Description:
Blueprint: H1 21-25, E1 30-33, E2 42-47, E3 50-56, H2 59-64, E4 99-103, E5 114-116, E6 132-134, E7 141-143, E8 163-167, E9 170-173
Antiparallel strand pairs: 1-9, 2-3, 3-4, 5-6, 6-7, 8-9
FE2/S2 (inorganic) cluster (FES) binds at residues 106, 108-111, 135, 137-140, 153-154.
Amino acid sequence: MGGAGAAAVAVPFVSTFQPSERARAAGAPVEVDISGIQPGEKIVVEWRGKPVWILRRTPEQLAALPTLDGELADPNSDRTAYPTPAYAKNTHRSIKPEYLVTVGICTHLGCSPGDKLTPGPQPSLPNDWKGGFLCACHGSTFDVAGRVFKNKPAPDNLEVPPHYYLSDTTLLVGEEKQA
Ligand code: FES
């Protein structure tokens, strides 16, 4: 029997906080326990009906980011179609270097890119691939900061949702920290 588990995907869909369906539809912030995410692992939570990725980057993944700027369409996230919050306008494009928090929807036509986190040559990717994401719909590629590569259909980097840390291990997606 194939069973329901046969369709399971590699990336777990984790929602540790469950507001009511009505609150969720209205865009209630989502509280996420990130304590169990291992280096190199990505989880997905839902916010406003969108998949939000939380990737705990390895030191190797972080080290690759500054080397890619010349290959990217908007390395400093200056474009404004999906304005990057001030707290994520940095090399790692996040509050804490280790954790990427981004909306997993391609800025071209809205497909969800797939994980291509393993570096090296592989189908549809350059031989010097350093790890990131590939949108299979039309071939847009993104680095592990969600920055889009040049000359791809997607015009913009992946969106960084409003978020902040409630504690070292708890993230709130959907709300900015109050001043
Ligand atoms: S929707 Fe991602 S490349 Fe077209």
